[in-house]
Specification:
Number of domains: 1
Largest sheet: 2 strands, antiparallel
Helix content: 40-55%
Radius of gyration: 19 Å
Number of helices: 13
Order of helices and strands: HHHHHHHHEEHHHHH
Strand order of the largest sheet: 1-2
Structural class: mainly alpha
CATH class: Mainly Alpha
Shape: globular
CATH architecture: Alpha/alpha barrel
């Protein structure tokens, strides 16, 4: 695939130079990106003055969450909801991909700093699972392929071992190929990695966010794929009466509206009337910040937070303090956001990613 290194490099290097100036800068200079790829350098995005900054309470909550993840990491480097040796029910691909991103949102990368060894183990776990798969398809559902793709995209070139870059590139491109050929004729995705599996907005949102992340990393995503995704969201899933997105067909759920908005924005539809209507619906949803009444609380806010970033500083500045304070209140004594022992592994890393939004370390979570 043709690779173009965009503003990802300058954004992350700028942040890392502040956080770990003397340690990481020399190592990043040795990144093993394709030699023929042109380098396009853009100035990093600067948040406007009114944007909320990271608070001390939020920082402490994030650090407690990261320590919980370290304490709960499996011996093979993964994070899962159960026995990591069970390569099905434990959702280890999803848990490990999100786990790595939770550390990256705070500027921690494989091989660097106090969490470097733990993140190396997580990276190696994902790369081994990819290598062991004949097709590159891993995990239980397309959700996991999507999350794996985001992790590979954001980690590519940011590890301490230059030799990892080619391995990560191969794994990333294999995953993207699976996603591209699995898009349904109507433009969405469903659980199974094949075009005849159908589509729903929940899977579609996760999968397209992963394509947007891969595109930020320089992987080619065809214009046709983006146009078909836009067509699915606008024509098949958006409900004008509610101003939101349905799970399968027109309708409304909080999670699908949040995911649908974010995917639509990343596809280039930020200023359309239908996207603006869906944003208004989210802002006026009375159940949005209630853990009791919003059944997919962490999942929906993972998307909604980033949708508000895409919507501009004014909306973001109003939204972030609400979810920040809600998450700090919901954090468990052990530092996690897990609500039962064998809970899905997404809640804690998603909470950390949301709380770490002001850092703007990960390109796909920036505007």
């Amino acid at each position: 695939m043709n690779v173009i290194i965009n503003n990802k490099l300058s954004i992350i290097v700028t942040v890392l130079c502040v956080a770990m100036a003397c340690v990481i800068a020399p190592l990043l200079a040795a990144k093993d990106k394709p030699a023929e790829a042109p380098v396009i350098v853009k100035a990093p995005a600067v948040a406007e003055a009114e944007a909320p900054e990271m608070t001390e309470k939020a920082e402490k909550a994030i650090e407690r969450g990261l320590k919980f993840l370290i304490s709960s990491q499996n011996k093979d480097g993964s994070w899962s909801s159960g026995n990591a040796s069970d390569r099905g029910g434990g959702y280890a691909i999803a848990g490990t991909s999100l786990g790595i991103m939770a550390f990256m949102v705070e500027g921690h990368f494989p091989g660097f700093g106090k969490y470097g060894k733990a993140l190396d183990r997580a990276k190696d776990y994902l790369l081994k699972r990819s290598k062991d798969s004949p097709t590159g398809a891993m995990g239980v559902k397309m959700y996991e392929i999507g999350l794996f793709t985001i992790a590979m995209s954001e980690m590519w070139g940011m590890t301490s071992k230059p030799e990892d870059n080619k391995v990560i590139q191969v794994a990333l491109e294999r995953a993207v190929k699976i996603i591209l050929r699995s898009q349904s004729p109507l433009g969405g995705w469903r659980y199974g990695p094949r075009p005849d599996a159908g589509q729903d907005t929940s899977v579609t949102a996760m999968v397209f966010v992963s394509l947007a992340s891969a595109r930020e990393a320089g992987v080619l995503v065809p214009t046709e794929t983006i146009e078909r995704l836009t067509g699915y969201l606008r024509d098949q899933a958006f409900d004008e009466r509610r101003g939101g997105f349905g799970y399968q067909g027109k309708g409304y759920t909080i999670a699908c509206t949040a995911g649908g908005v974010y995917a639509a924005q990343l596809a280039g539809n930020r200023d359309t009337e239908w996207v603006q209507a869906a944003l208004n619906t989210l802002e006026n949803e009375p159940k949005m910040f209630s853990r009791k009444n919003n059944g997919n609380f962490y999942y929906s806010h993972y998307y909604a937070m980033q949708a508000m970033v895409q919507a501009g500083e004014e909306r973001y500045a109003k939204w972030y303090p609400k979810i920040r304070d809600a998450l700090i209140t919901l954090q468990q004594p052990n530092g996690s956001w897990q609500e039962k022992k064998q809970d899905y592994p997404h809640k804690t890393p998603m909470a950390i990613i949301i709380l770490g939004t002001p850092n703007r370390y990960i390109p796909v979570y920036q505007r």
